[in-house]
Each structure stands twice: as structure tokens, then as C-alpha cells.
Amino acid sequence: MFNKLWLEENTIKVKLPDNKVIYQHKEGQKISSDNELFNKILFERFHNSKNFAKHVLELGLGNGINSIMLKSKFPSWDITGIEIDDEQARLASYNCQLLNIDLNIIEGDLRHFCPERKFDLIIANPPYQKLGSGKQSPKERTNLAKFELTCNMDDVFIALERNIAPAGEAWLLYSQNREEDLENKLNEGLFKKIEMLKEKKIVIVGLKYVANQ
User: Fold this and answer.
1) How large a percentage of the chain has pLDDT more than 70?
2) How many Å apart are CA 7 and CA 102, to the nearest integer?
3) Residue 203, beta-bridge partner list
4) What is the distance between the alpha carbons of residues 202 and 157, in angstroms, rounded to a whole number?
5) 120 by DSSP, 3-state: which?
6) Which of 40, 125, 137, 153 has its CA 20 to 30 A from that of 144?
């Protein structure tokens, strides 16, 4: 696990809405008000079923912020997070240890993830930017968080289709400049839009899997 010196050099502390503190990587995806809004919408969507043990997957766990907030709200949920960045996956594990949160954390590539059991709910806050759509950072981990280097929107939707249970739901957080791309994916007919919420520069879309119905 990480020592104090590594944490001081590579991370910063972030206070959550409930005043608990976790660490985020200085070069990774940043915790922001977007995460708080995303989780607020999920809380509102599922609060009436908080005592029902759901089987949940997060594609692209990062430092664990979204899954940690969900697990804190819905402790009976069985939540798995997959993360391709080994350092981010270990940081998520460290954050869970600090908060005594039980998540199933898998270091792996969502493009190849295919467990036997399907998920009732899948969430994702994928990299927003297409390759070539902006200036990249000299820091590789920053680029992984922002640009579609290891997965694009097609990969995310393929992973959703492969891992979601019949009539399961998916909730995604993207930037608003990807709204047209999201609508194009919905036109393929595998998912039905539950709702789409736009605030500032982000769009949050809830999807129902309908391909087998």
C-alpha cells in the first residue's frame, strides 16, 4: 500500500459532502461538483430501493469517488469497480480502507471485462474528449483521464451491453459536447433514454437496456 511520502508527493486530500476525506491523484481525473451532482441524481433515482441489494458496476473507477459515495448511501449494494490504471486502482483500494468501505476493485480493461453475473446498474464517468479534439498534457495519467486513449464511447456502450442484466439501467456522465454522440448511440436501439439532465458543461443520461425485451 502507499506510504506517507508517496501520498504527499502524488496526491491531494479531498473532503466529501459528508466531511469524510479521500485522496485523489494529482495527475488523474479530478473530483468536482460533477461527481456530487451525478451521485445526487443516483440517490434520488434509487432511494426508495436502498434496502434492496443491487449488483452494481462502475466502468472506470478512478480513485473510487463515485462508488464510494454510492456504497456509503446504499451499504447493502454489491459494487464492483474496474480500472485500467493500476495506480488509480490501488488508490481506490486505499481510500476504501480509510473509510472502511467494501468495494470489489478489479484492475483491468473494460473492453475485455465479462464476468458471468450481469449487473442491475452500471455507472460510468468516462474520458470526455475524442482523440485530436484538444491539446494533450505531457503527463500520461492526465491524458488517460481526459482523452479516449484506452476506450471511446463505442467501447463503453459495448461494455454496457455485454455486462448489463435484462431491463438493467446505466447512468453516464459526459460533457455536453458529446450529446449528439450519445443520441446517435441511442438510435441504435439497444437502450432507451430514461432521462437526460444538463447542467453547466455536463450531461447526465439514464438508460434502460431494452435489447432483449
Assistant:
1) 91
2) 21
3) 174, 198
4) 18
5) strand
6) 40
